Structure formats: structure tokens, C-alpha cells
Amino acid sequence: MKAFLVFIGIGFIAANGFAQDSLLSKTGNKDTTRLSTLFTKAKLEVNARTVYMTTINEGALTDDQAWAAGGGIGIVTKSFHGLEAGISGQVIYNLWSTNLAQWDTAVMVPNRYEAGLFDIQNPHAKTTLTRLENLFVRYSLSKSTISAGRIKINTPFINPQDGRMNVTMVEGVWLNIAEFKKVTVSGGWIWAIAPRSSMQWHTVANSIGVYPSGVTESGAKSNYYGNLSACSGLGMANISYKPIPSLKVNAWDLFVDNVMNASLLEVNHESGKNTTFYQGIMYVHERAVNAGGHQDPAKTYIGKGGQANVISAQLGIKTKKVNTNVNYTAITGDGRYLMPREWGRDPFYTFMMRERNEGFGNVQAFTNKTTFFFFKQRFKPSVGYGLFLLPDVKNTRLNKYGMPSYHQVNLDLAYSFNKFLKGAEIRCIAVYKLNEGENYGSKKYVYNKVNMLHLTVMMDYRF
């Protein structure tokens, strides 16, 4: 909030103190472009959201509910010779919830889903929660931009993962170059991250471990949170090549200083006009950098010499009325695929909302998703099914979170309003997960993982 007040204060003083001075004068007369104009003609962005969540677990295991409401407001100044600035903030209220700070007494495990609507680092918080979101300057030249400050980016490794009350944000410098017809380039250096479901900004190192961290390969509790001090930040680079309109090749590289390096290569193709057939294949390779974050195996993020290899593929068909696809992902037994959950969702085609395959090796995943389009695509019901075959829950070398194999069914109903309520959208997501693996009679492998029903109802309004 201090940064927010400073920024607003500077803007107010500047707008009032220099409003009469011309920023641009070509003839000697006063120009109509003034500092005040940059604010009075700024783009205002306002959004409101309310979300209700509930999870029903097996037997006597704890069931939780939560209802949150909040919103955000921001401005982006009018462009001046390609230069603009933006700022936004958000507020969240806990309207009602069960005791999200209380662990299930049978397994001594914390709440997993509903606590993420508020501040996962402070589940006791019942008061108003606030966070400064955007705070940036951006320069645009032709079709390219460079941004510096607090921004939102959407990449395979860091993305907003918009399923709670706030999204993942980053602080750094980000460049997009789109001057060429067939090639675009983007990337930058990030030194701070505000994870989704957290009210605080963290260094890159301290953002890793804000969420539950599972166990080490030997089975001991992971202790890397706050111990990756040698990590100064992360860099990402992307090259996208589109030799013909129907074919796209995308390459990404992520380097997390003194922790790990991950590379992704993806090829997508589509053909047809009224009926479109599309295919995609993706390969991800990940390896540890130096000791993976710390010399002590209990405090490192990825073990020294650790690596992971992932292949994901997709086949699909879409028309104006329906879009359906089948997907497959294989994570080899070389090691766990690791990517901080605080940074975003999995990039794989088999990703399904409310679960991830991060933290596992030797995985076989199969999914199908079908989406229908009604009322000029304003109503989009979809249904998805997935079978995820994971390592045994006691195989800690390849199973970081003790998750058994499972079936998952998702029902997703989304409706966008028009006319008087244009800008409003309501969405209902129902998720059922059924155990398919051995849990050795221990409920810690069941609670909030399998044999559970989860429901989310959210409404957004943007104007």
C-alpha cells in the first residue's frame, strides 16, 4: 500500500503542478498535450468477482466451504510518444467460510482449495485483504513493447492461473518483439513474484515454497522455502515461428538462477475451414543447475544432477458448435517434473482444473475434453475426463505429494451476458476425483486428493 500511495501522490502533484506546462511544443504555442491529459484520458479498468467454493471429502474427513468477494481498479495512462504507465490494486473480503486454518484432525493436513481464495500464508485472516498488482511503465514502438515493473505475463512456466480471487503477477523487465511477419520474440528477467492466493510480493527464491512443498526424494519433509538465497532471479526467452498460417513452432527456455533450467519445444498444426482438425506435440526437458538451490538435499528444490523429460500430444476437431480433443502426456522415470506451483499451471495438454501433474515422474495421463457453443458462443458447457496413472504413493523419488493414481471428471458451465449486463460472466465448475491407486489404508493419501467432490461457482464483471 505504501508504493500505491507514493505513486498516486506523485501523479497528483505532477498533474496539478505542471498541468499548465506543455509537454510538446513544435510552433512555440502551447500544445494540447499536457501531463494532465495523460491522466484525464487514461484507460480505466475495473473488475469485480465473487467466488463460492466447497469440497466434500470421503467419510468423516473435513468438508469445507468459503465465499469470497472482491474487486480491483486500475488505470493505464494515455500514450505519450509510445510511453505509458499503469497501476492497479485489488481488495478481497471473506464473506463467510468454515475454519480454513484448522487442519483435518484425522490426517493433520491443511485445507487445500478454499484457503486459496484468500491468503494461503495467513489462513486465519478474516479482515480485508489488499494487494498492489500492476505498477509499470511501458514503451511501444511499432509492433513491439518493453515493460518494466509489476506486470502480468502468460507463459508455459509462469501464468496467471485465473481460478481464485487474484492471479500470479511478476516484477521485472519484459520485451515483446513482433516486427517480423513469421517470427515473434519475447522474454525478460524477473526478480519478484506475487503468487496467486498470496497477498505478498516475494523474491523469486522466496516465492518457491509458499504453497505446501511435499517431501524430498528420500521421503523427508521438503525444507527449501526461504533457503534458496543464492537465486537472484529468473530469465525466460521465447521464439515463435509461423512458416505458414496452419503451422506454428514455439520454443521456450527458463533459467532459474542456481536452481534449474527448463526448455520447451511445441509444434501445432491445424487444417480445414468450417471443420478444423488440429494437432499438437510438446517436449519439455528440465535439469538441475549446480546443486538445485542448496547443497543440503533437505533444503534444495531439485536434487543435484536431477532431470525430467515430458512428452505431451493432442488431437482435436472443432466447428462453430463443438470443440473436442484427446490428449496424452508421459513423464519419464528419469525424475520428477518440478515447476513451482506458485508460478502457474502445467503447460501439458492433459491439464485439468483443480489438479496438476507437477511433482511426479513416471506418469501416464490420458484426457478428453469436449466443449459446446450455444447462443453465439455466449454459453459454453464442457465436460472432461482424465485417467492419471502415477507412481506408488510411497515411491517418494517420483511422487512428491503422495498422490495416488486417479480418475477425474470435470463439468464446466460458462455463460457470458450481453446487452444490459455485458461484461458479466458466470461460471460453475464441478470436479469429481476417484481413487485408482493403493493408499495403504491411510487417509492422508485421500483427503482433498481423491474420492472427493469439489464445486466452484464464480461471477465476474469487467468494465
What spatial form do the alpha-carbon principal axes imply? globular
Looking at CATH, which topology would you report?
Porin
Helix amount: under 10%
Series of H and E elements: HHEEEEEEEEHEEEEEEEEEEE
**Strand content range:** over 45%
Per DSSP, the total helix count is 3
State the CATH superfamily name: Porin
Give the helix/strand class.
mainly beta
Unreliable stretches (pLDDT < 50, length at least 5) are 1-31
Q: Specify the CATH architecture.
A: Beta Barrel
Radius of gyration: 23 Å
- The strand count comes to 19
The N- and C-terminal alpha carbons lie at a distance of 24 Å
**Main sheet makeup:** 18 strands, antiparallel, barrel
Whole-number total of structural domains: 1
The gist of it:
This protein is mostly beta strands and 463 residues long.
Folded structure, characterized:
With 463 residues, this protein is mostly beta strands. The chain has a single domain (42-462), classed as Beta Barrel (Porin). The protein is 6% helix and 45% strand. It contains 3 helices and 19 strands. It has an 18-stranded antiparallel β-barrel. A hairpin with a 4-residue loop joins strand 11 and strand 12. The longest helix has 16 residues, at 2-17. The two termini are 24 Å apart.
